[in-house]
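Lab notebook, bench 4. The sequencing result for the construct came back, and we need a structural model before the next group meeting so we can plan mutations. Quick request posted to the team channel:

Model the 3D structure of this chain.
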Amino acid sequence: MSHTLIEGALTGQGLRIGIAVARFNSLVTESLLAGALAGLRRHSVAAHDITVVHVPGSWELPLTLATLASTKKYDGLIALGAVIRGDTPHFDYVAGEAAKGIGAVMLKTEIPIVFGVLTTNTLEQAMDRAGAKSGNKGYDAASTVIEMANLLRELRA
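Done. Here's the predicted structure in C-alpha cell form:
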C-alpha cells in the first residue's frame, strides 16, 4: 500500500521570518537570538528577510507576534524568551500565559510560530539551553520555523 508523504524542506531561501525576543534575562535571550540568526543563515534565509523585534519580556510576546502576523509579511515567526523560576508564583503566570497566548496567535493567524521561550528552574539551566551544554534552542527554533513554513506551503498548494 502506498501513501503520500509531505514534509517541510529545510531550506529557507525566499522565506520571510520575524523574531520577537524578550529583553528580560538578556544574558540568555541574546544567546538564543544569536543561535536563531545563525540557524536562519545556515539554512539560506537572507538577512533582508529577517526582522527582529525586541520586547520587554516574555509576557509581551503574544501581542507582538499577533501584530507581526497581522501584517501578512511573514512566512513564520519565532518567539524567544527566558522565564526562570524564582521564589514567587510569578514564573507560573508569565510562562503559562506566554505559552497560551503564543499558541492562540498561531492558531488564529495560521502562521507557524515556534515557541523558543525557555522555562527553567535556574539560570544555569537556561544558559545550558542557550548554547552552553545542550545546544542552542534558538538555533533549533530557526530550523523548526523553516520546516513548518515550507510544510504549510506544501499543504496549502
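The CA atoms of residues 30 and 60 lie 17 Å apart.
Will bring this to the meeting.
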